[in-house]
Specification:
single chain; mainly alpha; 7 helices; 69% helix
Length: 154
């Protein structure tokens, strides 16, 4: 286990290079976590990525979560569209669970991809990072509007 003190700078480097589009460097930092860490450390990287997604989505949807009981949901039909790509589906579902503060579901999703093996876990984490990068790039354009939709919080 790397531990939170040493993991945080690694996770931040992974995210910084992902957002900058320097995916090879981000992957090298992810490799460090994979080689020297454990599942808890990789889950921490996923949570850091989902927290970055939260910032992007709150930029896209400034009023999201304003009403009590508001919850984030996948847009209708998105899960069906992503069913052919379980890694992208993991990214969308993990982010949604994290945004809803459903750490039990987020952990269960992570454990399921971890149980699928090294390659699936790595591809799922990379899909999550790509998802966060896409949301962040979209958020840089400003709030979602009818002519520039982002994603749909419910």
């Amino acid at each position: 286990m790397i531990g939170p003190k040493d993991l945080d700078p690694l996770a931040q480097e992974i995210l910084r290079h992902t957002l900058d589009g320097d995916l090879a460097v981000a992957a090298s930092f992810l490799d460090v976590v994979t080689e020297h860490g454990d599942g808890a450390d990789l889950f921490g990287v996923c949570c850091a990525a989902a927290e970055t997604a939260r910032g992007a989505l709150l930029t896209l949807f400034p009023d999201a979560g304003a009403a009590e009981g508001d919850r984030w949901q996948l847009p209708p039909g998105l899960a069906d569209q992503l069913a052919a790509d379980p890694h992208r589906l993991f990214a969308a579902r993990f982010t949604t669970a994290y945004l809803n503060d459903d750490r039990v579901m987020a952990l269960a999703l992570f454990q399921a991809t971890e149980a699928a093996g090294y390659r699936d876990r790595t591809e799922s984490i990379c899909a999550l990072l790509a998802h966060v990068r896409g949301l962040t790039l979209r958020a840089e354009q400003g709030p979602a509007t009818p002519d520039r939709p982002g994603g749909v919080p419910a």
